[in-house]
Amino acid sequence: MTTAAPFVRFQRVSKTYDAGTSAAVRDLDLDVAPGEFLTLLGPSGSGKTTTLMMLAGFETPTAGAIIVEGEDISRKPAHKRGLGMVFQNYALFPHMTVAQNLAFPLQVRRAGRAEIAAKVEKALAMVRLEGYGNRRPSQLSGGQQQRVAVARALVFEPKAVLMDEPLGALDKSLREQLQYEISRIHRELGVTVIYVTHDQGEALTMSDRIAVFNKGRVEQCGAPNALYDRPANLFVAGFVGENNFLTATIAGSTDKQIRADGKAGTIFATSAGANTGTAIIAVRPERVLLDPAAGDTVTRLNGTVAERYFAGDHVRLVVRLAGDEEVAVKASRIDAEHLPEPGEDVVIGWRAADAFAFPPETTEAPPAPKSPKELQPA
Ligand code: ADP
């Protein structure tokens, strides 16, 4: 967790549309530390963009407050907030050159000629586009245009830059390249970045912390490795990284570990809130072992290989267990002497520490307020 005074604080922020019948963001409490790279991650419609737009000043909270450096800016006009912005299809001015596009935010702020020239040069160097100042946007590739958009958001040295799916329109390899570039720029400048994406891989790669959104609420907020290794609930377990889910009935527990009866045999796992009754067991494909050595708390289940895919650095198997549940296995090609073929009988399993038992509760948010009267005026 962050210890510095927050740079941005969302305080019980809600946003409803259509006279309160549709809630986009519900009771959001979220702090962003100065210099932090915080990502809002979640499926489409979970409230990420609405949250970012309220911070930018393009939407007004229905309730709650947004505090920036101690000041409630909830109703301050967007252009007075001093935040840089990059969107997926951020329209650069097509009739202006790259340099003129970069100069624009400085001219608006009444910077002098010499200062503008120096800052434009610096911004071009930062995104590795030295020498491109005289081109027009139409003479640049999509990736170069997004670089210019990033440079334009940063050229006036804002304290924070907000990015909404800035790489969404680019192909995979360019997207990955720009992920590293934006991370590098963030490190070099120490600027606070608040970044929206639905791509969990992108979020894991770039962020200091990730807030996982679902139905207008934050399910979990933490460092990428914390979310990946210790998801707080089934939603996060399913959305961040990949997980297998098996249903089982808990038969006993010791300390933090549980023993459960699954459809295909006895399952050992670490409790993630489930201690009795039905549990959903989550285990990541890379944690599933082929023919694991037997042990006190080692799960061993019989199955048959249903599918096998070559994936370069690993082989992906789909194993069908008794009871018809399927488990994806990421098998290292280096470790395994023999990787089984489709149709082959196998034993798969895992150590209790590598699987988590969640209660089967849904993570459904409570229903939206029914009457507009329950809401504060917008
Ligand atoms: P995300 O960015 O996670 O895809 P959004 O913040 O865009 O999600 O949307 C959250 C919810 O709010 C969605 O259900 C969306 O349909 C709704 N919503 C967003 N903007 C409006 C609007 N202007 N009018 C009505 N509903 C909206």
Description of the molecule:
- The protein is α+β, with helices and mostly antiparallel strands.
- It has two domains: 222 residues, Rossmann fold, CATH 3.40.50; 119 residues, OB fold (Dihydrolipoamide Acetyltransferase, E2P), CATH 2.40.50.100.
- Helices cover 22% and strands 35% of the residues.
- It contains eight helices and 20 strands.
- A six-stranded mixed sheet has the order 6-7-8-3-9-10, with helices on both faces.
- Strand 17 and strand 18 form a beta hairpin.
- Helix 2 crosses helix 3.
- It is elongated.
- The protein starts with 7 loop residues before the first strand and ends in a 20-residue tail after the last strand.
- Bound molecules: adenosine-5'-diphosphate (ADP).
- The site of adenosine-5'-diphosphate (ADP) has 12 residues, from strand 2 and helix 1.
Please summarize the sheet with the most strands: 6 strands, mixed
CATH superfamily of the largest domain: P-loop containing nucleotide triphosphate hydrolases
Bound molecules: adenosine-5'-diphosphate
Element order: H for helix, E for strand: EEEHEEEHHHEHEHEEHHEEEEEEEEEE
Distance linking N and C termini: 32 Å
CATH topology of the largest domain: Rossmann fold
Q: Per CATH, which architecture of the largest domain?
A: 3-Layer(aba) Sandwich
Strand content: 25-35%
Give a topology summary.
Blueprint: E1 8-17, E2 22-32, E3 37-41, H1 48-56, E4 63-68, E5 71-72, E6 84-87, H2 98-108, H3 113-126, H4 142-154, E7 160-164, H5 172-189, E8 192-197, H6 200-206, E9 209-214, E10 217-222, H7 224-229, H8 234-239, E11 244-254, E12 257-262, E13 265-271, E14 278-283, E15 289-290, E16 298-310, E17 314-321, E18 326-332, E19 345-351, E20 355-358
Helix pairs in contact: 2-3, 2-4
This protein binds adenosine-5'-diphosphate.
Adenosine-5'-diphosphate binds next to strand 2 and helix 1.
